[in-house]
Amino acid sequence: MLRIINFRPYLLNTFARKTCQLTVLYRPLSAETLPRRHDMDEYNHRIDIAAPHYELLEVLNHRSSQLQSFIKTNRSSRTSSPSSDRSTTKTNIRYRTNTKRKNQNNVNIELNPVKEKEQPIELARPKPSKTKEKKKKEKTTSPSSLPIPPNRINELSKKLIRTTSIDENQSITTISPNLYDETLIAEEEQEDLELNETLLPPSSVEEITLNDNHDDKTLTDLLSSLHSTKVRRLHKYTDEEIKFMHIHNEFNRMLQAYVDVLIFNGKLNQARRLLNELLVDQERRQSMKKLTWRYVTNIHVFNTFYFAYADKGNLKALQDLFEKMRKYHIKPTLESYAAGLSCLGNMDLFDSSIARRIIIDLEKEGFRVVDIFNLDCLNHEHIQRILKVLKTFRPNFDIPIRSSNVNNKLLNNIYQQPSLTIVNQPIQTDLWWKDIDFKKKLNDQLNMEIDHTVKIKSINAMKKIDEKLSTRYQDFISSLEQQLTIGFLTELELLKRKSKKNLEINIIPFLEIFDVKEYVGLMITEVQRHCYASEFHSSPFVTLCISLGRHLYQKYLCLIRQKNGFIDKLHLLYDEYTKHIITNERFIINERQKWNEITKEKFAYMDRNDRRWTFTQVLQLGEFLYNVMLKHMKLRVPLLTKKDQTKKTSNNSVLYVVYRSSGKSTEKQIKVHPTVLHFFSHIPEANLDFSCIELPCLVPPLPWLSSTMGGYLLTQTEFVRSPISAGQQDARLRSLSIEKIGGLLDSINVLNSCAWKINGDVLDLLMDIFQHGGNRHLSVPVSVENAKLPEPLPLDKGLSIDEQKRREIALSQTKKMKAELFSLWCYELYRLSIANHFRNEVFWFPHNLDFRGRVYPVPPHFNHLGSDIARSIILFAEGKPLGPNGLQQLKIHLVNLTDLKKKASIDERAKYADDIMDDILDSADRPLNGRQWWTKSEEPWQTLACCMEIARAIRSPDHTKYVSHFPVHQDGSCNVLQHYAAMGLDDIGAASVNLKPNDLPQDVYSVVVDQVEQERKQDASNGLQIAKILEGFIKRKVIKQTIMTTNYGVTLYGARQQISRQLRDIDEFPREYILEASTYLAQKTFISLRELFQETRKIQDWFTDCARLISRVRDSAVEWNTPLNLPVVQPYYREIRMKQKGKDIYDNFSSFARPNNIKQKNAFPPNYVHSLDSTHMMMTALQCARNGITFVSVHDSFWTHACDVDRLGQYCREQFVSLHKEPLLEILSRDLLSKYEFKSSEYARADDKQKQTMKLFNDTLQRVPERGTFQLESVLNSRYFFS
Fold first, then answer.
1. Count of CB atoms within 10 A of residue 1065's CB?
2. Are strands 665-672 and 755-758 parallel, antiparallel or unpaired?
3. DSSP structural state of residue 434
4. More exposed terminus of the chain, fewer Cβ within 10 Å: N or C?
5. Angle (nearest 5°) at CA 1238 between 223 and 1225
6. CA 541 – CA 546 distance, rounded (Å)
């Protein structure tokens, strides 16, 4: 039932149709005799979890009458003529439209053998509504005076020609190009209207070749009918089967977490009884030939028991369970054998023959003994026991150092370079670390993660709290603690009484991990956070529950690691590792290699198993705690009144539920009682509560050793940030060897190892402005009280209907503006408060990836990826002398920040800085009282920080010896287009984005603006009214955002919105023409970009074609591997629903759901290019580290010290050329073909129309766009490529 099942000891061999039931029979097969699926690559890329051991094809709740109707339909379809078949299909569709969708039976089971005449069951779909048809007719028939961009489908059709014989007199019809509406709703409507079209045109097509000048609609018809019912014949599973797989997978993952928590709570026997009962029930159903999703197929469930028995030295229990596992044909993993050896090592005397048999078995399964020591789930005690057993066979056996090798062709040149040695390494002049007590910092970091919640003093807490209010506040919190304690115990007892079934997996063990005080403290913190929130905002209930459940999960992991001796091992390792990171030794031996050496030397092995909880369990835990808060928190104490309410019982809840409508859906949200909000508004929030993962590290983060080990010390850090239920990419990563992803790990460790400190001078200015109400002109958010928003008129009685509506709209807009202002103000409050907290500290940012491979700091509120303010208040902790060219680089960087000389040469920018040196020094000396030149900059606060750095350098005795901590940026010139131009070797596009050498920088935005202006003039001369109105308004700022986001997949609708916002900001532009003008400019911008970047558009079109076919024909999410072997899976799926405890749980990220075709198609081009720009950044980071250069990145903006800018620029260009010398498009094509290509076995079983579809599908994936004539090596001499 999984997407592709590799190992299936039971295969379907008979499908019996009876009038009373649906029965599935199966026969056992050994793993050796199983046929391998031809559409799987060697890495089993499409396996989601361990494959179940039965063909999970049971379709629940089938009524006999429905089954008979299907049989009759099939029989009649075999004997009827083609014309009657079409009429029957129409009749079925008409009949099924009037029935409920939930009663539709999607049965599409592949039979073996299949009779020749038997046809697959066609699934009926509802007919499009008349409203949609009416809208469609209006769209296609309404005339437009505006230029119309070419339709993508027609453009594709022009590339195809049929080479088979066609009647010469037969005319080939084409679809007139329409202004295609790119919104999701419009596209879905169009697809629904085409449901009844045939899969391919009726004429036979034997061969398809490319021809740009011939019009053919073969691909057009294919793409336009991909959402029809007939294409589902090519899908592997029906909707019912997919839902069944999802439930089965969720059950096994929930069972694993449930068993793990039970064992942690000391209830091993209870967990074993549960497993035994499940296995007995499974065997009973097997004997009755009934299948169910409650089959235990997850090997990690058994491994959890094995390690529990190993810790107790209970070999007999372990052997019994091992035999049961084999009985149910579940294959052991390396962890299973490691647990067996650990169990033997935990015994005073053990039978060596058992150990020998374990070793022989694991080698037969293809494992190696030495690989055991690379497992992340083993702690030092496990390693000691295993080593004890192995030394009985080989007394001189020693644990090998964990491999730090990298197996990647792209990185060979970097890793094969001779690294720096103690002799030739640069002298470290700034010993910034000599006065820091790193042992104290390590203890502080560990305590912070153990507590998980950190209190930071708010910079807004200037007022003293009134004593009476303070007393009432303490009474209120004490009252809540008492109510929550009673409520928690009450609800837990009720839950225990309801859950008396032995086979039931519930959340009771998860609520018994900690003492009641821990849960109550967690809820009190959550309530306080709500009380200080905005009265204009309410949070979604599901989001709050997941956040609270994840918080509990992180505390659980920290508790386990404390008990496993994790902290003691960290103390052994961190002293030496910190010395390595803070000195230049990190450029000689990388972080991963050094950590492995120290671990081996100190014998400090640690268990980093993440023990994941499922999405359902996290959600249920959060719901339980929130239900306790909603039901049991009442207003029992007086807040702003002097009346004594203690004698009266109040039914007013502190929190209550509201339901808000957004479009078609209604969302459950949480609000705070107005009285409580009013009370807390009189109490300044003295301390802000943050999770430890929202703050920087006080010591260097753990190096990334694998996809599960790295980041924070105790708290689990995700290597790839993704929703809980989106586990497909994580499964791919875990299946890869460390050698394959070693380059990924090392590059992120380079970013992790950069130490930072606070720029106190700029922070003081910001805090002063913020505490005095903010300043919009300086981009410092203002508070709602100081915003001076116009108050809307009251909704009085007796108003006319029109006046009342106007006032309601004004009131709604005011509330929205206040909510936005409050959000911005809070975000800045968090950032500045955290910065003030770390004012006198040196700190580090742990990093991880998004699913595309782009790197981000883990702390969300305060990091160098933030706004202009965030970047202005941080500096490198390590300083370097400016040297002969450093001051010049600071001046150029200052001018770059102002954006005043964007078209000027580098030398002209440096000269401009010298010309305005008086303004620079005045800004540094009197930032708020002087001429304030810095406030006119595009990035004012970074400009001010740079002015201060230049002033200090100039006034030093020798500026070449001045030690600078200031980061200097090198930014790419429209980096997405740079990658597209390099992939397609687009000579014209490369010149416009500075890939080619030039005396002056090229500005692609200005080029497009000039081209659009020329088109406007021509249209105006032809009498087009909107072109005349736009005269003088087409400026760079108006369409810059559209040009930028076009490369990220912005739609025509989105571009129109962007341009309309810019036109509204122009006071002189007539408001009544904004919609028409924005539509005109969006179309012109798209056409100009297509003409300017012809090769780029071909590549984007090919990406879109591939993604659309993969998601619709193959019914799969698009996935590929980056050049550094990161497996990428686009996590865009349709919503899947399942019931848990009588409640509907919706999951938008389950890999068992069908893909969201529109998102898969639209997102693939920008996501693929983002995976390339992250690869370029990582290669540059590794090259810089190899040569002793500090490196930090903000995607396509690379940072280093001023003295190293020239070398950074050289390495950046070299790695870009190295990356794009690889045939990236051909590699991507091969990658997609290996995963999705239709094989000959599938082709042989298909009918004629399916064969044509399969061939066209394969041809599209192979159709790599031709490349241009651009010489890639010229990038090495381009001064403005990154500048």
1. 9
2. unpaired
3. T
4. C
5. 75
6. 9
| pLDDT tens-digit map of 850-879 | 999 999 999 999 999 888 999 999 999 999
Residue type, 197: E
Neighbouring C-beta atoms of residue 1071, cutoff 10 Å: 9
Q: Is 452 exposed, middle or buried (0-12, 13-18, 19+ CB in 10 A)?
A: buried
Q: How crowded is the C-beta side of 738, counted as CA atoms within 13 Å?
A: 19
C-alpha to C-alpha distance for 1267 and 1274, rounded to whole angstroms? 16
Amino acid at 439: K
Judged by DSSP in three states, 849 sits in strand
Cα separation, 1222 vs 1124, in Å, equals: 12
Q: What is the pLDDT of residues 903-933, one digit of tens each?
A: 899 999 999 999 999 999 999 999 999 999 9
CA 622/CA 546 separation, integer angstroms = 6
Question: Before 700, cis peptide (omega within 30)?
Answer: no
Q: Could you read off the pLDDT of 522-556 as tens digits, one per residue?
A: 999 999 888 887 777 777 898 899 999 999 999 99
Instruction: Pull the structure tokens for residue 555.
Output: 């505390």
Report CA dihedral (1059, 1060, 1063, 1069) to the nearest 10 degrees: 140
Q: If DSSP codes are grouped into helix, strand and coil, which group holds residue 791? A: coil
CB 1053 within 8 A of CB 1078: no
The helix (H) or strand (E) run that includes residue 193 is helix 184-193
| Cα separation, 1114 vs 328, whole angstroms | 32
Q: Which two tokens stand for residue 139?
A: 């769209």
Residue 11 phi/psi, 5° resolution?
-115, 145
Whether pLDDT at 1112 is above 50: yes
Q: Is the pLDDT of residue 46 over 60?
A: no
Task: Classify residue 462 by burial, with Cβ atoms within 10 Å: 0-12, 13-18, 19+.
Answer: exposed
Determine the Cα–Cα distance for residues 339 and 1071; give it in Å rounded to an integer. Answer: 73
Which has more pLDDT, 567 or 1248? 567
The CA dihedral of 1205, 1208, 1210, 1213, to the nearest 10 degrees, is: -120
CB 837 within 8 A of CB 457: yes
Total number of residues shown for the chain: 1283
Query: Which two tokens mark 535?
Result: 């009265």
The overall pTM is greater than 0.85: no
3-state SS class at 691:
strand
Return d(Cα 667, Cα 1251) in angstroms, integer: 45
**With contact defined as beta carbons under 8 Å apart, do 1082 and 1063 qualify?**
no
Distances from the Cα of 797 to the Cαs of 794, 800, 810, in angstroms? Answer: 9, 9, 17
- Is 1016 exposed, middle or buried (CB count within 10 Å of its CB: 0-12, 13-18, 19+)? buried
Q: Which amino acid is at 709?
A: M
The C-alpha angle with vertex 448 and arms to 444 and 450, in degrees rounded to 5, equals 115
* Cα 1260 from Cα 1113, distance rounded (Å): 12
The CA-atom distances, in angstroms, between 377 and each of 268, 307, 519, 994, 1081 are 19, 10, 28, 49, 58
The pair of three-digit structure tokens given for residue 251, joined into one six-digit string: 């059950």
Per the listing, tokens 């999607």 go with 106
Contact 925, 934 (CB under 8 A): no
132-172 confidence digits (pLDDT tens): 444 444 444 433 333 333 343 334 333 333 323 333 333 33
Burial 1034-1062 (b: 16+ CB within 10 A, else e): beeebbbbbbbbbbebbbbebbbebbbeb
Asked if residue 890 lies in contact with residue 948, where contact means CB atoms within 8 angstroms, the answer is no
Q: How far apart are CA 132 and CA 104, in angstroms?
A: 23
What is the pairing mode between strands 880-881 and 874-876? unpaired
Q: Note whether 623 and 545 are within 8 A (CB).
A: yes
List, in sequence order, the alpha helices (H) in 1093-1156.
1094-1112
Radius of gyration, alpha carbons of the chain:
33
Tokens of 1128: 């990428």
Task: Give the residue carrying structure tokens 């090998």.
Answer: 400
